Amino acid sequence: MILRKLRKGVTKPYSFSGMQKIIQTMRARIGLPTTFTLDACRHGGMTELEEAELTDGQGRALSAHKTASAYAGYAKRTMERALSATRKRHAHLLANAAGTEFRNETRNQLRNAEGMRDDLKEL
Fold first, then answer.
1. How far apart are CA 58 and CA 43, in angstroms?
2. What backbone torsions phi and psi does residue 65 show, to the nearest 5 degrees?
3. 3-state secondary structure of 3
4. Which residue has the higher pLDDT, 116 or 34?
5. How far apart are CA 74 and CA 62, in angstroms?
6. Which residue from 58, 66, 87, 95 lies 20 to 30 Å from 111 (Cα-Cα)?
7. Other residues' Cβ atoms within 10 Å of the Cβ of residue 54
């Protein structure tokens, strides 16, 4: 959201058409082609989010898409994206492997039955 100053201490968001007019004026002054539009800027930014390997949820949060179907036009299902997700999943599994070992052990009925420390046995 881009705000414009109305008067001291008072701001208001630009309307879509107001921002589009500013971009058209800038485009003409700089000499960019007519294909340079507000939608093209948004699409380029969304493509950068995808190349940064964000999840769908992260991309939707940044782009303000409310539904997965609205975001789907930007989130291309490519092999590179699938491989990235697989690498992240594998790294997560490796990082949590040590914690899983303790959670999967059977529980002793008696608290100090087998694993009693040697220094406590003398007491």
1. 16
2. -75, 135
3. strand
4. 34
5. 12
6. 95
7. 17
> Do the beta carbons of residue 62 and residue 49 sit within 8 Å?
yes
Closest C-alpha to 55, from 82, 73, 79: 82
CB atoms within 10 A of CB 59: 19
The H helix count followed by the E strand count for the chain is: 7, 2
| Higher pLDDT among residues 20 and 121, named by residue | 20
Q: Which band of pLDDT confidence, cut at 50, 70 and 90, is reported for residue 82?
A: confident
Cβ proximity of 49 and 59 under 8 Å: yes
CA atoms within 13 A on the CB side of 97: 6
What percentage of residues in the chain have a pLDDT greater than 70? Answer: 76
Structural domain boundaries in the chain: 1-32
Indicate the DSSP class of residue 106. P
For 49, residues 6+ apart whose C-beta sits below 8 A from its C-beta are 58, 59, 62, 63, 74
